[in-house]
Amino acid sequence: MAAMDGDGMVPLAVLLRREMSWERIEKPDILYGEASESKKGEDFTLVKTECQRVPGQGDTTFSVFALFDGHNGAAAATYSKENLLNNVLSAIPSDLSRNEWIQALPRALVAGFVKTDKDFKKIASVSGTTVTFVIIDGWVVTVASVGDSRCILESAEGSVYFLSADHRLEANEEEVERITACGGEVGRMNVVGGAEFGPLRCWPGGLCLSRSIGDMDVGEFIVPIPHVKQVKLSNAGGRLVISSDGVWDALTAEKALSCSRGLPAEAAAIRIIKEAVQLKGLRDDTTCIVVDILPPEKISPSFPAFKRPGKGVFKNMFRRRSSESSLFSDRDYSEADMVEEIFEDGSPILAQRLDPEYPAFTMFKPFNCAVCQLEMKPGEGISVHAASSSKPGTINPWDGPFLCSTCQIKKEAMEGRHT
Ligand SMILES: [Zn+2]
Fold it and tell me: Which residues form the PPM-type phosphatase domain (predicted)?
């Protein structure tokens, strides 16, 4: 399990202390742009740059960027666009410090994704969507993902990081095993004569993905439990590229970054889409959001974004390593200027993702359903560990967190156990 003590990870509290001691309490500037070429009209984006952890307090602002690539209709994508952010935020306890809020995010993202999937089931059984959901708070970037849209990061130091998982059956043997064990059938299409072709798909339905929001008609073992990764950038910043598979089927991460390097965010997004469509044609909805996380403009903080010399800023940023690294010893450099991984977990098992060993566990309300936040009377909830496959022997079935009865049914359905 990932969390705070995993290999090579740095505890968040240490990072935030370090941030304070180095007087890095300033927030980065966030500049962004998006571009899209539509074929089926099933890609949707959500951009919110003025969210506040504490309503009315400007210094608690954070940003959200999300991409929803729908299939079999747009219903799941539009429903998620409208409801997912609220479902995530309402799963975060109130009155948290910034440190605690960031620690609580991974679990709240899991709860918000599952609640959105469960609620969507009430309005439609057909259609599903990938979700790539990015929250930026200061220099901390948290990405939750289901499906095969992707978020990549190029740090100002020039390293490239994948912040999302690939939940294509074709690319993920563990997920194929999980789905088969739950009763799903995974295989390729057959032509007459038995020759197989195309990617691995889950039947019935023929879905190529192992996780999504929606897709109730395929089976509940197509789970909405997101891969979550949390990193902290250095105060030199970096660039995020969030794109649907239309881009990644045509371009590698390196190609997408190199073809748009030096361009301001919006021009970069347009260039990436153009490059992808030129290479592969417009075979699918193709959407790209580019987000630049930049050192704050100290001279005129309210200077309009479109007048900023984006090109120059980037040129400097990406030269930083070669021109300045020699000034630092290796150790200083790695502490000061690397992207640091705070948290990562991609387990598809809900009980593991709501585990008491998780950061910020004690801050969640014990008598609210851990998924939908329904208030329950003591003794009414069902332990997430009841009859669960998670760590037998280490956790008692009367230990929390607890689920309401309908979320418990959802949990069992996701594990392939129907009641
Ligand atoms: Zn519930």
Answer: 24-293
Taking a 5 Å cut-off on Cβ, the residues next to ion ligand 1 are 369, 371-372, 374, 404, 407
The pLDDT tens digits of the residues spanning 356-404 come to 676 677 777 778 999 999 999 888 899 988 865 555 556 666 778 999 9
CA of 56 to the centre of ligand 1 (A): 30
Q: What is the torsional sign of CA 187, 189, 192, 194?
A: negative
What does the alpha-carbon distance between residue 202 and residue 200 come to, in Å, rounded to a whole number? 7
Instruction: Please give the model's pTM, rounded to 2 decimal places.
Output: 0.85
Query: pLDDT value at position 301?
Result: 38
Q: What region does 229 belong to: left with phi over 0, alpha with psi -120 to 50, or beta? A: beta
Q: How many CA atoms lie within 13 A of 393 on its CB side?
A: 0
* Separation of CA 411 and ligand 1 centre (Å): 10
User: If you measure from the C-alpha of residue 402 to the centroid of ligand 1, how many angstroms do you get, rounded to a whole number?
Assistant: 9
Q: Which residue has the tokens 């609580």?
A: 104
Q: What is the pLDDT of residue 322?
A: 34
CA of 229 relative to ligand 1 center, distance in Å: 24
- Ligand 1: centre distance to CA 222 (Å): 19
C-alpha angle 31-287-38 in degrees, rounded to nearest 5: 135
Report H helices in 374-419: 405-414
Measured between alpha carbons, how far is residue 234 from residues 28, 39, 359 in Å?
10, 38, 22
State in Å, rounded, how far the first CA of the chain is from the last one: 29
Q: Which domains are seen in the chain, by residue range? A: 3-165+223-357 (3.60.40.10), 173-208 (no CATH), 365-419 (no CATH)
Query: 165, 153, 326: which is closest to 234 by C-alpha?
Result: 153
